Description:
The structure is a single chain. The protein is mostly helical. The chain has a single domain, classed as DNA polymerase, domain 1 (Orthogonal Bundle). The chain contains 6 helices and no strands. The relative contact order is 0.12. Helix content is 59%, strand content 0%.
Amino acid sequence: MAYPASGKPRVPPGFERAFAEFQKLPNVGKATAEDLVRLRVRSLRDLSRREPMTLYRRLCRMDGVRHDPCVMDVFMATVEHARTGSSKPWWKYTAQRKAMLAAAAEGSRRASRSRR
């Protein structure tokens, strides 16, 4: 997500510390840190309790667009780091994301067939 015309990130009041903390994490730059605080994630501990798919879907709803699926990979890497300290690059989560989405899509197809 691009910054507003001011060129400054949109950091909600009271989230300045979290914004700075998140930028120290692997795979996180200013844009992802901004997304996390806009999603009202307050700390590394708070992040460890979140679900990457939920964060991604909420971000898409907030912005009214479908973000690149790689954003979900970054959220997966970041949440795992918050939970375990793992520092794998975000692209190592791409296959896992694709498998998870395929399984969810198959489950939805089965559910819609059983309702017929």
